[in-house]
Amino acid sequence: MDKPVCLINTDSDGKLCVQPAALQVLQQIQQPVVVVAVVGLYRTGKSYLMNHLAGKQTGFALGGTIESKTKGIWMWCVPHPTKTGTTLVLLDTEGLGDVEKGDSKHDTNIFCLAVLLSSTLVYNSSGTIDNRAIEELQYVTELTECIKVKSSDEDVDDSTEFVKFFPSFIWSVRDFTLERKIDGKDATEDEYLEFALKLKPGTSKKITSFNLPRECIQKFFPTRTCFTFPFPTAPEKMSTLESLSPADLSTEFLEVTKRFCKFVFDKSEVKRLKDGHTVTGRVLGNLTKMYVNTISSGAVPCLENAVIAMAQIENVAATQEGLEVYQRGMEKVKCSFPLELEQVSSEHQRLSSKATQAFMARSFKDTDGKHLKVLEVG
Ligand SMILES: Nc1nc2c(ncn2[C@@H]2O[C@H](COP(=O)(O)OP(=O)(O)O)[C@@H](O)[C@H]2O)c(=O)[nH]1
Ligand SMILES: [Mg+2]
């Protein structure tokens, strides 16, 4: 893909919908995917940072005006720069908290989709990690209502289960101008983040609401890292940032960006389903379709149901793939007719096992062998 495409959009009624052209792109990707999604307030430099991850100067459209450019979720699939045989999928989300739209349910849905689809979630904010920046991440406090782990109707608290399937978390702080000091001592970026997430003792209403988002971030995202970026360039050059060459960018900004990209490439893992099954581009497309349909129907997406639904789709396709392997092989055998019965029988054996191998490579969770049987009968 030489440029990003829109993956999720809203239709004229404001309902979320998946773009068929983006699904088609994903359908073609048989490789496992590392999915990095960025969320945060609009106009905090999210799209600009994602372009750096893609190794490109331009790509995701930047919001040069106050109106936010990115609507819904945009996607860019590029070969993973360091993990061969893997595709890096970058998801750029529309800015949260756009006053023009003023639709917090919509923002929550976009945030949930970013959590559900990614293996690394980047939360981007500007300035410092102060109380305001943490409150802007209020969506974390709603995650327990927006995502279910198990399909049972019982009202169980899934939150402790979340951590096993949630993306790892990176907080990127932009235009950071302070010195990172805690009690007068130099602090690393991670120490700075942990300090900002520290809970206050007490049970007053004020303290409880101070602690709640911090508790949620700590609980849902146990693997977390922070990067503090300085201003990218001098104020007078900021308006043309997108066209500036690296020589015009501050060396500190380039250094942090380089470390950030290296960290993402080294540490972001391949996306997996709840049962540990690797997500390929194709599965990611089906997963997106399923989650978006669930959310737009007003239901709560469930990680366990997703495994069952994905297994069903993949197993039907795997049966088809196995059959095709067998049929293609048999066509070839037919060309060399007449053959001894013995030869035909041994070719049949060979192709059957090749077909089963093709099936096994793609199928998963076919625990009772239902789909494999279909292949054998077929
Ligand atoms: N001050 C500042 N501006 C930035 C930074 N990165 C990008 N910008 C500019 O801020 C505007 C919005 O950037 P964009 O990436 O579209 O923000 P998004 O809405 O969060 O995706 C654009 O004019 C960018 O050139 C940054 O680190 N600091
Ligand atoms: Mg943007």
Automatic annotation (TrEMBL):
Superkingdom of the organism of origin: Eukaryota
SUPFAM superfamilies from the UniProt entry: Interferon-induced guanylate-binding protein 1 (GBP1), C-terminal domain, P-loop containing nucleoside triphosphate hydrolases
One Pfam family cited in the UniProt record for this chain: GBP_C
Keyword set includes Hydrolase: yes
CDD domains in alphabetical order: GBP
InterPro entries: G_GB1_RHD3_dom, Guanylate-bd/ATL_C, Guanylate-bd_C_sf, Guanylate-bd_N, P-loop_NTPase
Residue span(s) of domain GB1/RHD3-type G: 30-269
Gene3D superfamilies the record matches: Guanylate-binding protein, C-terminal domain (1.20.1000.10), P-loop containing nucleotide triphosphate hydrolases (3.40.50.300)
Keywords, comma-separated and alphabetical: GTP-binding, Hydrolase, Nucleotide-binding
GO molecular-function term, one example from the UniProt record: GTP binding
Family of this protein: Belongs to the TRAFAC class dynamin-like GTPase superfamily. GB1/RHD3 GTPase family.
PANTHER family: GUANYLATE BINDING PROTEIN
Protein name per Swiss-Prot or TrEMBL: Guanylate-binding protein 4
Protein source organism: Danio rerio
Gene that encodes it: si:ch211-209n20.1
